[in-house]
Design brief:
- The longest helix has 67 residues.
- It contains 13 helices and 18 strands.
- The strands form 4 sheets. Strands 3-2-1-6-5-4 form a 6-stranded antiparallel beta sheet, sandwiched between helices.
- It is rod-shaped.
- Helix content is 47%, strand content 25%.
- It folds into 4 domains: 87 residues, Beta-Lactamase; 98 residues, 2-Layer Sandwich (Beta-Lactamase); 99 residues; 153 residues, Heat Shock Protein 90 (2-Layer Sandwich), CATH 3.30.565.
- With 478 residues, it is of the alpha+beta class.
- It comes from Malaciobacter marinus.
- Keywords: ATP-binding, Coiled coil, Kinase, Nucleotide-binding, Transferase, Two-component regulatory system.
């Protein structure tokens, strides 16, 4: 008897369980956590008509399982041997509803994400660890000319041109190992066989073991860059040719000036030689032939001829074309340059002064001949201005100073300076203020100093005239 009571106690305290024993539609016994006993009451008295009919169907085995809403709770009902078993599944039902709602929300978000992907201006695709397509947006499908069903049988490797198959496979493996691969460029082949230049970025998602790939068609960009490169090369060739022409014109102009300088330098020794020749004629006609005088005349003639020969050598060395850098002393180069036009300076009563700052580094490693040509252009320009303006007490000063790691030459004159409206354009090609000028000399000096020798050439006016400044990196004394 005690055992039966214990069993009933257990049945009545079963959590979330109600048991109804029914015979001939009458509840003869009930167990579980219920507010009142249903004994000796009819089954249909406790359920709605719809629910009651479902219970009968369950009893007759016309349905296999049944879930009902009863007494504000959800129950899962089963029937066996005249007994109904009601399992309270309310909390599970709520969880199910929440899961169902979450699933519905996830589906909605997935649809939204797909819509965003399809509106994207780049190809977006998802790959497995082998590089096979799991998903691709509309842009990618259109770009590659494949439907999604066709892409399921393809991979980012199979859509690559043959030479990029292995690099594509390596990019997939690198994305898995490193997490991300950015701007990997390759050539893809569309379904119709068209080749397109593509830039791809891959990101590995470890939780799903998938790879997100973003693909951009850069064919037009590559074509534009190649076209731009061709145009730049063409322009470089055109400018190089123009530069060579201007160099040639500058050299011809310099040669013309140098020929004039040679004429100046030869005029006096030629006159002297003429006088000596005439003296020889008189000496020959005299009764007493003076051999000592003849020897003196011979010595003087040889000196004049040697001077003229040295002049030719000086100008010949000046016009030697050399692009080889070498060590040279800037003061010696300045003196050699002045020597070329020294006679002209003296004939025009123009004094030239070279001043050297104490401690200045006079050693350079650069293009000596080109430096002398640039310096000569500047001095010649000052000379022409001083002659044109008939300046009294004319002078040209060359001050060599040290400015940090740079050796500077300040070439100044008292010719009145450059008109301010012209000073900004003074280094441009074919810009000149002289009637017989060609506008190449100062431009070429600018190119030589800044482009060829990596220095700097500027101009400004002071109270007396123009000041051209050449700045070149000094040779490291160590």
């Amino acid at each position: 008897m005690q055992k039966n009571n214990n069993f009933l106690t257990i049945l009545n305290n079963l959590p979330e369980i109600i048991i109804l024993v029914v015979k001939n539609d009458t509840i003869i016994d009930s167990f579980g956590q219920i507010k009142e006993k249903f004994n000796n009451s009819k089954l249909y008295e406790h359920f709605s008509k719809v629910t009651y009919n479902k219970l009968l169907l369950l009893k007759s085995k016309n349905i296999d399982n049944l879930t009902i809403y009863w007494n504000s709770k959800d129950y899962e009902v089963s029937y066996f041997d005249d007994t109904y078993y009601f399992k309270d599944v309310t909390k599970y039902r709520n969880l199910y509803l929440e899961l169902k709602k979450s699933l519905r929300d996830l589906r909605s978000k997935k649809e939204e994400l797909h819509a965003v992907f399809d509106l994207a201006g780049n190809g977006i695709s998802i790959l497995n660890e082998e590089g096979t397509f799991l998903y691709a947006n509309k842009f990618f499908q259109t770009m590659m000319e494949y439907s999604m069903e066709e892409l399921y049988n393809e991979s980012c490797i199979s859509l690559s041109s043959p030479e990029y198959a292995q690099p594509s496979k390596s990019a997939v493996q690198r994305a898995i190992e490193e997490g991300i691969v950015e701007r990997f460029r390759k050539i893809c082949v569309t379904k119709s066989g068209k080749k397109i230049n593509a830039s791809m970025s891959l990101s590995y998602i470890k939780s799903t073991n998938e790879i997100v790939m973003i693909t951009s068609d850069i064919t037009s960009d590559v074509k534009y860059q190649e076209d731009l490169k061709r145009r730049i090369n063409k322009e470089v060739q055109r400018r190089t040719k123009q530069y060579e022409i201007m160099c040639h014109q500058s050299r011809l102009a310099s040669m013309g000036e140098m020929i004039e300088s040679i004429a100046h330098q030869w005029r006096q020794p030629l006159n002297s030689l003429g006088v000596i020749v005439q003296g020889l004629k008189h000496l020959n006609n005299s009764e007493n032939f003076d051999f000592d005088l003849l020897n003196e005349m011979e010595t003087e003639m040889i000196e004049k001829i040697n001077y003229m020969s040295e002049t030719i050598d000086d100008f010949s060395n000046f016009f030697k074309i050399s692009k080889e850098k070498k060590n040279f002393n800037i003061l010696n180069s300045v003196k050699d340059t002045i020597k070329l036009i020294d006679v002209q300076l003296k004939n025009e009563n123009i004094k030239i002064n070279v001043n050297i700052e104490e401690g200045v580094n006079l050693e350079l490693y650069s293009l000596e001949n080109e430096f002398r040509q640039a310096l000569l252009n500047i001095i010649q320009n000052a000379l022409d201005i001083l002659i044109l303006r008939k300046q009294l007490n004319s002078f040209i000063n060359i001050d060599i100073i040290q400015n940090g790691n740079f050796t500077e030459l300040n070439i100044s004159d008292n010719g009145g300076g450059i008109c301010m409206k012209n000073i900004e354009q003074i280094f441009r090609p074919y810009v000149t203020t002289k009637k017989q000028g060609n506008g190449i000399g100062l431009y070429m000096s600018k190119v030589i100093i800044e482009h060829n020798m990596k220095g700097n050439l500027t101009v400004q006016n002071n109270q007396m005239g123009a000041v051209f400044t050449i700045s070149l990196k000094s040779k490291d004394e160590n």
